[in-house]
Design goal:
- By secondary structure, the chain is of the alpha+beta class.
- It has three domains: 107 residues, Calcium-transporting ATPase, cytoplasmic transduction domain A; 90 residues, no CATH class; 52 residues, Calcium-transporting ATPase, cytoplasmic domain N (3-Layer(aba) Sandwich).
- It contains nine helices and ten strands.
- It is elongated and about 105 Å long.
- Its main location: membrane.
- Belongs to the cation transport ATPase (P-type) (TC 3.A.3) family. Type IB subfamily.
- One of its GO terms (biological process) is copper ion homeostasis.
- It comes from marine sediment metagenome.
Amino acid sequence: ASKALEKLAQLMPDTAHLIKGSEVKEVKISELKKGDKILIKAGEKIPADGLIVKGSSYIDESMLTGESKPVHKKLEDKVIGGSVNGDTVLEVRVEGTGEESYLTKVINLVKEAQSSKSKTQRFADKAANWLTIIAVTTGAVTLIYWFFYGPDLAFAIERMATVMVITCPHALGLAIPLVTAVSTSLSAKNGLLIRNRTAFENSRKITTVVFDKTGTLTEGNFGVSLVTVTDKNYDEKKIIRLAASLEKNSEHPIAKGIISRAEELKVKTMQVSDFEVIKGQGVKGKIE
């Protein structure tokens, strides 16, 4: 579980490109302040929460929000530190750093959940407490009895130690926290961060799971699943070739899926002229 938190912390880059007038200076993210303007290059991690002041891009927030597909961000939209920029350059005004950042709040929330105890663990602690009292009392009684009726003191101490080892609830005290730690760790390795251990414990009673987001159950990568041909002059490869030729100039996530399919079919793209992106609709261009 602690390794999972470390991985979350590693989502944040070490440095940022700070814009000072006409110059761009590389600084540590700890030096960033609210109101600073930073440059985010294509493919880079965003170093702090902020608002876009120049440019637009598709941002990968899957590790932070669970959103499987990149989210289109434009002027004045908020971006989250730790998310990954797409294929364009952005300028962002810093709004949250350090403890104020979204990622830090998530990490602190998970830490609090991991330090809390579930209902079963609290019950086990109470049981272990009472069993410890019983073990000590039984051991004391055994020592007193054999001290008076046994051959010597060493014999009495041996009997007392035997009784206390047998009755001591150390297994109970170790088993529950160990199971909790292992289950939390395994969950974290699979991308599930536990916020409430009691709720996690009650999850064994779940019979139905309802997902409210499209793409939650997918790999998060777009691809071509079906090509329907309605014109006899075309086949799947020809349609993919035409589509990939246009989409190779686009930065949209769906374009990458089409290009990936073209690579699988080993088809070569063609030259495109008068290429144009039509926002919210698609792309167009002339293929020679």
